Amino acid sequence: MEVRVAWSNRPGAGRDRQTQGLTHRLTQKRPESVRRKRRVTGDGAGTLPRPPSCVPGTRPAHPAALPPPPAPRPPPMKLLPLLVGFSTLLNCSYTQNCTKTPCLPNAKCEIRNGIEACYCNMGFSGNGVTICEDDNECGNLTQSCGENANCTNTEGSYYCMCAPGFRSSSNQDRFITNDGTLCIDIDECSGPAACGDHAVCENVDGGYNCSCKEGYQTSTGKSQFTPNDGTYCQENVSADCHLDNACIAANIDKMLTKIRHIKEPVALLQEVYRNSVKDLSPMDIITYIEILAESSPLLGDMNSTNSTKDTPSNSTLTEFVKTVNNFVQKDTFIVWDKLPTNRRRTYLTKLMHATEQATLRIAQNFQKTTQFDTNSSDIALKAFCFDSNHMKYIHPHMNVDGDYIKIFPKRKAAYDSYGNVAVTFLYYKSIGPLFSSSDNFLLEPQSYDNSEEEERVVSSVISVSISSNPPTLYELEKITFTLSHIKLEPYVPKSSGFTLSNFIETTDKYKSQCAFWNYSPDTMNGSWSSVGCELTYSNETHTSCRCNHLTHFAILMSSGPSIGIKDYNILTRITQLGIIISLICLAICIFTFWFFSEIQSTRTTIHKNLCCNLFLAELVFLVGINTNTNKLFCSIIAGLLHYFFLAAFAWMCIEGIHLYLIVVGVIYNKGFLHKNFYIFGYLSPAVVVGFSASLGYRYYGTTKVCWLSTENNFIWSFIGPACLIILIILRHST
């Protein structure tokens, strides 16, 4: 218990009153005889008042409320230790109580060094009078709970708890810093069957991972999982399947059994999407395409059962496009390449057929005039739905990345029947190579070492399908489309020096052709055909066509017999050898014209400058024509070639003019003429090159060779002056 004794504010009075109070307490403990004697032998002041006692929960009265006691005689010094001992036993404090200062609930008032003030309790900060805020021990780095533990702040304190996957070494849920408690990892794999059947458990810090045993695969396609995410291990029926029909059928039946309970079309497509978004195998592609093919007739019927069809149709079309994109994006080409050619074409046809049928059925469920489009990375869809009242105002078309298709119905004087029309466009951005007749179609652009003509898809594949009720309501007249070309170039291995293939324009070797994929819905076997289609326009980058029927359209290019890689190498070596021989001969001529004074004349001066320009042009050509890795350096090489070849043509023109003057017998000033020869021979090519570079400097150097680009006819900056000089020489020669 604690009893506080009031202190007087008079200096020095506190010490006297404390001694007086202690004396009173000591007096109370004396025997009755001593007390009686004290009353008799006192100073006549009478009996002393009884001092306040230390009662728990109470304070002694204020000194002003008590009658002033008579000044007692100070106790002997030898009694002071005894007085202190009694005070300690009674747990009485020497701290004075505050009388004036009000403190906050989370603070207490104390008088320190004679100054009365409020102090915030431990765990709080402030002045104690107007503010006492809780300290955030968790934000203090010195109070961190340590590794693998989480700190939680409380009012006036904090506590630590181990993170999930860890437990405290003291087996207490809550602890504080520096009490010796550590968070240690829980070994979840020590328990029986932590990952379930057919799985292997691997413990990691703060958790564990599960993976399927050999011969089993996860139900979600994940390589690692935890049982609480709903993933489990199932038998991998395709592990030893080798793509035989019986194994394919078993895998399809198992997958159909798994999703047969799904009645909503969006949920069905989402399930297929989740399973096909993983790394696919050839068996996976075949299985999911078969599932889509079997489900596509039902998707429209499932969607038509909804009372409000428009919103479900939008969601179903979006999910269908997302799902199909998993099979036609470029990342899956390496998987398609593992399938034999016939099977690859068959299942690609089945996928396109199922997509066309399903999207058209779903589009028919729109209840009002609708135009809907959705796209993914490698496929796009656009759907139209309208009635006969809007046929005159709606012109179905599709435009994706510059590829365009539009349908034209037959014109009718009047529409004598009422009905609905649905039109769907599908755009496959990258599936052209999948139609290749080669087993290794990924290497096809490199397989030019043959002499047979072959046709390849060099554009995106685009399709259109129409459904009208009645069928005669919307009859097709024609379809027009324009598709951009995928650039084709023969593959030539890199070698040091010039390769002749760099100067062969590949577009001259190819012949554009409008085509459609003609297949049987029963067997899903097909081939490209051009029946009913005609080419209306074609250039190096685009081809426009017109067809009179519906299906999947594309642009084919047929390549004639090409030069093999061995022939390219031989031609390259012949070219290099010819240039080297030419350089040697030009060097001999330059030496002769320069150092033999007996033959010096105007004609030899012209020959000397002509040989020098040809020598420099061929030397730069041999060394730098193929250095196209550095754009700036390649542009400089192209500019030098442009200048030296034009200078050579200029000196050829000068020689022709000089011969003309000799033949006609014109007398001229040789000094003046020589000066003008040099101006024309070197300044005129510089003017042409400078003017060309100022207008189109970016056309100096191409991705193939360090020469002038053919874009925007920039090559005519060389061909034009060269042809003009040739015409001048021919004119004077006659």
What would your notes on this structure say?
With about 725 residues, the chain is of the alpha+beta class. It folds into five domains: about 15-90, no CATH class; about 135-185, Laminin (Ribbon), CATH 2.10.25.10; about 190-235, Laminin; about 245-565, Sandwich (Chondroitinase Ac, Chain A, domain 3); about 575-734, Rhodopsin 7-helix transmembrane proteins (Rhopdopsin 7-helix transmembrane proteins, Up-down Bundle), CATH 1.20.1070.10. It is built from 14 helices and 25 strands. The protein has helices at about 15-30, 30-40, 80-90, 245-260, 265-275, 280-305, 310-330, 335, 340-365, 565-595, 600-625, 630-665, 670-695, 715-734, and strands at about 105-110, 115-120, 125, 130-135, 150-155, 155-160, 165-170, 185, 200-205, 205-210, 215-220, 235, 370-375, 380-385, 395-400, 405-410, 420-430, 455, 460-470, 475-485, 510-520, 525-530, 535-540, 540-545, 550-560. Strands 13, 14, 17, 18, 19, 21, 22 and 25 form an eight-stranded antiparallel sheet that branches. A five-stranded antiparallel sheet has the order 15-16-20-24-23, with no helix packed on it. α6 runs antiparallel to α7 (about 310-330). The N and C termini lie far apart (about 135 Å).
Write the layout of secondary structure elements.
Layout: H1 13-28, H2 32-40, H3 80-89, E1 107-112, E2 115-120, E3 124-126, E4 132-134, E5 149-154, E6 157-162, E7 166-168, E8 183-185, E9 199-204, E10 207-212, E11 216-218, E12 233-235, H4 245-259, H5 265-276, H6 282-304, H7 310-328, H8 333-336, H9 341-363, E13 370-375, E14 379-387, E15 397-400, E16 403-409, E17 420-428, E18 454-457, E19 461-469, E20 476-484, E21 510-519, E22 526-529, E23 533-538, E24 542-547, E25 552-559, H10 565-595, H11 602-624, H12 631-664, H13 670-696, H14 716-733
Antiparallel strand pairs: 1-2, 3-4, 5-6, 7-8, 9-10, 11-12, 13-14, 14-17, 15-16, 16-20, 17-19, 18-25, 19-25, 20-24, 21-22, 21-25, 23-24
